[in-house]
Specification:
The strands form two sheets. Strands 1, 2, 3, 4, 5, 6, 7, 10, 11, 12, 13, 14 and 15 form a 13-stranded mixed sheet that branches. Strands 8-9 form a two-stranded antiparallel ribbon. It has helices at 19-24, 36-44, 91-106, 123-128, 147-156, 173-181, 206-209, 270-284, 305-311; strands at 10-13, 49-56, 59-69, 74-82, 112-118, 130-143, 169-170, 194-197, 200-203, 235-239, 242-246, 250-251, 258-266, 293-300, 323-330. It has nine helices and 15 strands. GO terms for molecular function: acyltransferase activity, transferring groups other than amino-acyl groups. It holds the Pfam family Acetyltransf_1.
């Protein structure tokens, strides 16, 4: 295929009017459980995020974004996608270069780029990025009419010693701040004070926790990617020595009534992991529309993979990926403007 040249393409700051174009090039992304259709408009309102579209003959052909985190020293790249009919022609490289050049100019204090990928990234990426962490991914597909039976089965598989564990509890905002404001005693829960929720990798520094300060009257948060403190939104639950984060249930393009839920587990105790999965699932499905179904992905330390796979045995698997990788590279600011014209 012929590689497209930069002059052929226009790169602009994404707007609400680009939504349909971005969704049109996203068909089939992440096997139908793409998060972007649900989060696009919320992302537009986030002052820490920049979003870009590439256009060819006035039609959207690519999308990319970055989010500034860690107090302004790190940027997370998210959402890259290219129109199916142009893949393999250098479009991704063009919009990525523009994104990084813009980032360097507008945020000169950013020294690190971070992103998440599934297993087997291309060697060219591994030559640039270092691997920070990896987690096992186990995904299941639950139909509405199977939920009651599924919960009965899962609860029957909980360890007999589960009564010895205090039940998970939801943490309110002040408790979340308190949890991460000082050194955690159980350092194996968050190695390097590193937190990943629904593929967004951040640290537990105060600036990131302040992302949750926009709390509404019902206790939920308006930012779907951020840590929340309410059972009606993304939830943090904890017991001694173990922590879990659950996203809100949200609709995905897989089909009418299809929803997605991500559960991120932190810690290495299998008994706690099982308890948290059931707890998060039961809480989340309260928001499941009548007749709806849910794809639930559980992210856990690799040592828990076999145990969680056995625990979820018999439930329909959703085989999108097996591993979540967190990659990072150092960058230096540039002094020259991006070569591609950008229009706000």
């Amino acid at each position: 295929m012929t590689t497209l040249s930069t002059p052929e393409m226009q790169i602009l700051q994404a707007t609400a009017g680009d939504y349909e174009g971005v969704i049109a090039i996203s068909e089939g992304v992440f096997m139908g459980i793409d998060y972007l259709p649900f989060r696009y408009h919320a992302w537009l309102k986030d002052p820490q995020r920049r979003m870009f579209v590439a256009k060819l003959e006035e039609k959207v052909v690519a999308f990319d974004s970055f989010l500034v985190v860690d107090g302004g020293v790190t940027a997370v790249l998210q959402g890259l996608r290219v129109a199916p009919w142009l893949r393999g022609r250098g479009v991704a490289g063009i919009i990525q270069k523009f994104t990084l050049d813009t980032l360097r100019l507008d945020h000169p204090d950013v020294t690190k780029i971070r992103l998440t990928r599934t297993e087997d990234p291309p060697p060219t990426m591994l030559n640039k990025y270092r691997l920070l962490h990896s987690k096992a991914v186990v995904s299941i597909y639950l139909l509405a009419d199977e939920l009651e039976e599924t919960f009965m089965v899962l609860e029957s598989r909980l360890p007999s010693t589960s009564q010895d564990f205090p039940p998970p509890v939801f943490l309110d905002y002040s408790e979340v701040r308190s949890l991460f404001s000082g050194p955690l005693k159980e350092e194996d829960i968050l190695p390097g004070r590193f937190l990943i929720q629904s593929w967004l990798p951040i640290t537990t520094c105060k600036a990131n926790l302040d992302l949750t300060s926009d709390i509404t009257n019902d206790g939920s948060t308006s930012k779907e990617d951020d840590i929340s403190v309410s059972s009606t939104g993304p939830s943090i639950t904890a017991v001694k020595g173990f922590l879990s984060l659950g996203t809100p249930m949200f609709p995905v393009p897989l089909g009418d009534g299809k929803n997605r839920l991500d559960i991120d587990l932190f810690g290495t105790d299998l008994s706690c992991a099982k308890i948290h999965v059931v707890f998060q699932l039961k809480e989340a499905v309260k928001a499941l529309p009548t007749g709806g179904s849910v794809v639930c992905s559980v992210f856990a330390e690799e040592i828990l993979r076999d145990g969680l796979t056995g625990f979820l045995d018999g439930i329909t698997l959703f085989s999108r990926c097996r591993e979540q990788l967190v990659l990072e590279m150092d960058i230096k600011p540039v002094k020259t403007p991006p070569s591609t014209q950008c229009h706000s």
